[in-house]
Write a structure and sequence with these properties.
By secondary structure, the protein is mainly β. It contains 7 helices and 24 strands. α3 packs parallel to α4.
Length: about 400
């Protein structure tokens, strides 16, 4: 086809040491109304990530989840922003995630289109009955007009490396009994435009988020705050999110190869202490990290849900937030009104004003910085004490946390 461009290279370890994301320039012909970019390399030899930056700004990211994307005026591959092709120099973003010692050859084929390709068919929310709000199911009282809402602050869709569309994920969150869900696709905000309609159809508040993803750690940026440049230092993420009115949280800080190793000059106040990878909750590393990170860290939970069959659906774990409504959950995070439980209906520990509310905790042990108490009964109120607290079983398995 006329106008097809072929871009080749062989990045080495020296290239990766210089920068983990490289920009490969190209210029579409002036008649192009859409373009398709295809990346080919030996996937048995390494991992290259894929993205796009246009003359007017960032257009999207799919990381290693896709080998091809299309950008057209009315639609784009999930993970990318649709719109007219502005004239000028475009760049394929090439992430050098894993390279063999001898380098990794690649070929990028850019195909311009005179007529934009047809978009894929839309998806709809699968039908289902909305369960009662979590606070009503658990018999939780209000406090100063605020209600405890249950949800999940970490989930992915087809806009990055997830397996479900936004409407399908919303329906799943509904079926799990969640009041809200933050959709946090990797290094993109292309999913944000779908959230209001899908959330309204499912009866779940879908919160806009993005997982700022690098080799040295991940962080969730919550709020309708625009794209955060993952190529910049982590302190820049924190400053930008704060300036734009969002909330930044360190993700899974002790989880395997994506543990938090990013340097910052100020402490990020919130952290995903309970992540699905904390599969043995007698293991104390997340709690030890939290204590070393900051004595007043806002403790959050996230399932990091990607696709069915993983064994950790949305809400495993569940983050409880005292807020005016599910859509205002981030206000509760800013105010440090958070708790985490294993599931929406599991043992629960809430700091409710001057009291601890404990649900379904009979026989568990309430641990605090300077005391411990055996819980008797499934609906218990105790005077609250300072500092983070948790419920544990007799074998020291954590069942609930509260900030």
């Amino acid at each position: 086809m006329t106008g097809v461009l072929r871009l080749t290279g062989r990045p080495t370890l020296d290239d990766r040491a210089a920068a983990t994301v490289h920009e490969i320039p190209f210029q579409p012909p002036p008649w192009a109304r859409a373009l398709t970019v295809h990346l080919d390399y030996d996937r048995a030899a390494g991992v290259l990530d894929l993205g796009c930056h246009g003359p007017a700004g960032y257009r999207g990211w799919s990381g290693g989840a896709r080998e091809q994307y299309t950008i057209a005026p009315g639609w784009a591959t999930p993970g990318y922003l649709p719109g007219d092709l502005e004239p000028g120099t475009w760049h394929v973003l090439l992430g050098l995630h894993r390279l063999p010692p001898g380098g990794l050859p690649y070929e990028i084929v850019v195909t311009p289109h005179r007529t934009p390709p047809a978009p894929p068919p839309p998806t709809v929310v699968p039908p289902g009955e909305r369960p009662p709000p979590a606070a009503r199911r658990r018999g939780l009282p209000q406090l100063d007009g605020l209600t405890w809402v249950a949800g999940d602050l970490h989930a992915h869709t087809v806009h990055s490396d997830g397996g479900l569309t936004v409407p399908e994920l919303a329906a799943l969150a509904r079926d799990q009994g969640l009041d809200y869900l933050a959709v946090t696709d990797h290094n993109t905000v292309s999913h944000h435009t779908e959230l209001p309609a899908a959330g309204a159809a499912a009866g779940v508040a879908l919160l806009p988020g993005q997982e700022v993803t690098t080799d040295l750690g991940h962080a969730n940026a919550f709020g309708d705050i625009g794209w955060i440049d993952f190529r910049r230092p982590a302190q820049h993420w924190a400053d930008t999110v704060r300036r734009r009115g969002g909330v930044l949280s360190v993700n899974h800080p002790v989880a395997a190869d994506c543990a938090w190793r990013q340097p910052t000059t100020t402490r990020i106040p919130a952290a995903e202490i309970w992540h699905w990878s904390w599969w043995d909750r007698t293991w104390g590393a997340p709690l030890a990290w939290a204590a070393a990170w900051a004595d007043d860290v806002v403790m959050l939970g996230g399932s990091d849900y990607h696709r069915p069959g993983e064994g950790h659906p949305p809400g495993a774990p569940t983050t409880w937030i005292l807020a005016g409504e599910p859509a205002a959950a981030l206000d509760g995070v800013r105010a440090r009104r958070t708790s985490v439980s294993a599931t929406p209906d599991g043992p629960l520990l809430l700091r409710h004003g001057d009291e601890f509310l404990i649900r379904d905790g009979d026989g568990l042990i309430l641990w605090g910085p300077d005391h411990r108490t055996v819980v008797t009964g499934d609906d218990v109120t105790l005077p609250a004490r300072p500092g983070p607290h948790r419920l544990e079983t007799a074998r020291n398995e954590v069942m609930a946390l509260c900030t």
